[in-house]
Amino acid sequence: MPLRLRRPGTLEFRLERQKTMELKILVLPGDGIGVEVTAEAVRVLKRVAEKFGHDLRLTEGLLGGIAIHKTGTPFPPETERLAQEADATLLGAVGLPEFDNVAPEKRPERGLLALRKALGVYANLRPVKAYTALLDASPLKNDRVEGVDMIIVRELTGGIYYGTPRGISGEGATETAVNTMKYTRAEIERVCRMAFELARKRRRKVTSVDKSNVLEVSQLWRRVVTDVAKDYPDVELDHILVDNCAMQLILNPRRFDVVVTGNVFGDILSDEGAVLAGSIGMLASASVGPKRPSGAYVGLYEPVHGSAPDIAGQGKANPLAAIGSAAAMLEYSFGLAEEAAAVTGAIEKVLNSGRVTADLNPPGQPATTAEVGQAVCEAIG
Ligand code: IPM
Ligand code: MN
Q1: Ligand 2 center to 288 CA (angstroms)
Q2: Nearest to residue 36, comparing CAs of 381, 368, 342?
Q3: Using one digit for the tens of pLDDT, what is the confidence trace for 37-85?
Q4: Shortest-distance Cα residue to atom 5 of ligand 1
Q5: Fewest beta carbons within 10 Å, which of 11, 154, 291, 347?
Q6: For all residues of the chain together, what is the average pLDDT?
Q7: At what angle do helices 34-52 and 337-353 cross, to 10 degrees?
Q8: Architecture of 21-126+278-381 per CATH?
Q9: Closest CA to 275 of 298, 243, 249
Q10: What is the dihedral of CA 42, 46, 51, 56, to 10 degrees?
Q11: Cα torsion at 87, 349, 151, 306 (round to 10°)?
């Protein structure tokens, strides 16, 4: 509880008595630029903990290509244990070009999918916001992107990413590959509820994206969303086919508030959304699952961008998506809204200052990854 004291002769003097919280966070830097962007997100978390008096307990684990190198598997049991013990997990990125021709089950990406599944984080929230300072960074005309503020809610632990049967069999002309897109009513319902709850805190509009003119999975999806909507009469629901959605995101992006969709459509549309935000280096995400007894969501926080091996280790990567993901962690997993706002406010200040990385086309010399992290810390004060 904030304690208000009044000193004679001064304005109201507000002494914040923040309850000290223990923040048990697992950091999984992963591969490529994941390492350098998570380092900056951690720097920011340390600054926040120091400023607001929280007790930061960081552990680090292996995931993805680096885990394959060190342990032979992309998701070592030790990583799973650490993730289950932590209150929240901050992830960088996974993927290395040397695994490009390797079978899917041996790839770094499989580690990430297994982690998401193990934590049960079924709803991936990907906010797409056009910051005024970045309007020129988007290849789209300013008047098209100005005011864009949406959140893509992507189902994360089902659909074609996980459906069985899957695999490649046979040889020659009959060599055949199979993947299965599958959703149960329960899986669709819980992610849609998340979308409607979010919409209530925003502009009260949910757009559900599917391909119901072709796919049975989408027909069920549409029926379930429509059923869920009955519990939210104050929220408007519309449906859009995924191909049309891809077009409307560019033609009329302000029409979207909360977008809810399945795993693979959400993956594709969120990269498109990155163009509206100026750079994929800006897109943060929060993957949330069931609530823990404390009331906090189980959470996995990761930037939407990948491991970008072409620029890894050069200090060129934009850390703001990772830092934004850390802000989302403070809010969703720890309920620290004030701390989260301090970080997002600092990000905005840094954007306005022009001290940003090359992907955002700054007027002068681009800043390095570490300089941006440092600038965010300074802006937090
Ligand atoms: C993402 C990524 C991942 C996904 C890859 C790395 C497995 O593209 O988070 O968007 O497809 O989910
Ligand atoms: Mn993706």
Answers
A1: 17
A2: 368
A3: 999 999 999 999 999 999 999 999 999 999 999 999 999 999 999 999 9
A4: 109
A5: 11
A6: 93
A7: 120
A8: 3-Layer(aba) Sandwich (3.40)
A9: 249
A10: 120
A11: -70
Domain ranges, ordered by start, for the chain: 21-126+278-381, 139-277
Gap between the Cα atoms of 320 and 354, Å rounded: 13
CA Rg value for the chain: 21
The answer for residues whose C-beta is within 8 angstroms of residue 16's C-beta and 6 or more apart is 2, 3
Task: Judge if the beta carbon of residue 187 lies within 6 A of ligand 1.
Answer: no
Hey, what are 29's tokens?
Answer: 């830097």
Active site positions, annotated:
161, 211, 243, 267, 271
d(CA 121, CA 136) in angstroms, rounded, equals: 35
Predicted local confidence at residue 294, as pLDDT: 73
Map tokens 């503020």 to a residue. 149
- Residue-wise pLDDT for 19-34, tens only, equals 789 999 999 999 999 9
- Classify 58 as helix, strand or coil: strand
User: CA 245: distance to chain centroid?
Assistant: 20
Residue to substitute in 115, 121, 267 for testing ligand 1 pocket (most ligand atoms within 8 angstroms of CB): 267
Q: In ligand 1, which atom is closest to the CA atom of 94?
A: 6
Joined together, the tokens standing for residue 198 give 């979010």
Q: Which class in CATH covers the domain with range 139-277?
A: alpha beta
Residue 198: what residue type?
L
Q: Distance between CA atoms of 62 and 76, rounded to whole angstroms?
A: 7
pLDDT digits (tens, 9 = 90+) for 305-315: 999 999 999 99
Query: Which pTM value belongs to this model?
Result: 0.92
Residue 262, helix vs strand vs coil: coil
- CB 171: neighbour CB atoms within 10 A? 8
Do 21-126+278-381 and 139-277 show the same overall fold? yes
